[in-house]
Design brief:
49% of the residues lie in helices and 16% in strands. The chain has helices spanning 4-47, 56-63, 81-87, 100-111, 129-141, 165-173, 222-247, 264-282, and strands at residues 50-54, 69-73, 93-96, 115-118, 147-151, 176-184, 187-189, 197-199, 204-209. The strands form two sheets. Strands 1-9-6-2-5-3-4 form a seven-stranded mixed beta sheet, with helices on both faces. Strands 7-8 form a two-stranded antiparallel ribbon.
Amino acid sequence: MPQPRAQRTKRRTIWRRARRYGKRTFAGTAGALAPSLYRAWMGFVWHTSRRVDHGLDALLAEWAGSGRLVLLMWHEEIFAAPYVYARLGIRAHVLVSRSGIGEFAARISKACGHAVSRGGSSRRGSRFRPTAIRGAIRWMRERDDGVFATPIDGSHGPRYRMKPGSLLVARACGARVVCVRVWFQRCIRLPTWDRAVLPLPFGEIHTYGGEPRPLPIDSGNRDELEAFRVSSERELVDLTVRSHADTGTPVPARLAGPPSSPSAPQRRAAHAGRKKSTRSHSA
């Protein structure tokens, strides 16, 4: 007959296995139902809201089938943008992280007809990012009117600070970049790092489209690419502030901050330049 301690150990083992199985079953069921629930909710929001356009319709009409585009947007729109852009006829290649939120975003993006690559700027997802970016570039090159979209401050922030990955895709496939925005008069913010929004019905949906811009001719020059990155970030920040003013929603405090600091490659280049200058002076 087993000893009491052995019985307790056996019960704990059985309980842990049952709990793990329950979690996997729940996650699988939730993952399977999420796209349908998402499309049903967003359809309800879409049909009960009034859309107000600020240049996105003209942008789509002008560029339909006439060139490649890279859409610049913030990570806070990750739950709302896939449905809205699909409703407007955009089928994009989307780069999302390999996190739990990224898994949900990938499922709903696929359900809306977008192509998806998985990779991220976090430590866990960064090893997959080169492969994901190469896949996005290959997908874009196969289509004369390809559209690439990714949150430029993802996948883990800092919030409202642009990373250069989307510009690398644009440079590799000869695409123009354009700032876009989808904002809602009625929404709630989720307790995530990006304060992602969940749209609510019976309000207004505001869509924004900027002016498509080509990358600098010498886009391989780090200084020119960094200057273009900073100007693109500032343009999207201005568009975001405008969207809050148009909908009467409060402007996040982070938008009032200064432009983002130079990227890591620029800091390393500047540091190397200072060291070289110091050596030459000491010689």
